[in-house]
Specification:
Blueprint (H helix, E strand, L loop, with lengths): L14 H21 L12 E2 L9 E6 L5 E3 L2 E3 L1 H14 L4 E6 L5 H13 L5 E3 L2 E2 L5
Parallel strand pairs: 1-7, 2-5, 5-6
Antiparallel strand pairs: 2-3, 3-4
């Protein structure tokens, strides 16, 4: 009787489980990076606008609440104190950008007062936060 030798099969690397693992790692790191973002403002009801951009990375947040109270990085401030603190921020970092979040029911005059203090402090990079409006066709 003649016995035939079996051919040895070479080792194979399965690619599909490797793709699953890489995808899982990608999702994990994306979710982890999203949870590391720091929002310094208070939650307010933002007005809607059709256009808008993301704020720069080095920012300070000024929030104008519905009742007209202003907050700088969640700390309540008066108009005079706001100007002093903004000048301190500019002294520490001349490239600082200010993001103003004002409730849509806040008095227009109070928001203008905050904008005036930002300009008088020498800050030229500022943005007003909005909620994106749904595109209509």
């Amino acid at each position: 009787m003649i016995l035939r030798r079996r051919e040895r099969k070479g080792a194979r690397i399965e690619i599909i489980p490797m793709i699953d693992v890489v995808f899982f790692l990608l999702v994990f790191f994306m979710m982890a990076s999203l949870s590391m973002t720091v929002y310094r403002g208070l939650p307010v009801n933002l007005p809607r606008a059709a256009s808008g951009t993301t704020p720069p990375t080095e920012t300070a947040a000024i929030t104008v609440a519905r009742d007209g109270q202003a907050y700088l990085d969640r700390q309540p401030v008066t108009r005079a104190v706001l100007g002093e603190r903004l000048r301190g921020l500019v002294g520490a970092n001349p490239q600082v950008a200010i993001v103003i979040t004002a409730d849509e029911a806040a008095a227009h005059g109070r928001v203008v007062d905050v904008l005036d203090e930002v300009r008088m402090a020498g800050i030229t990079r500022m943005a007003i936060a909005i909620r994106p409006e749904a595109a209509t066709r």
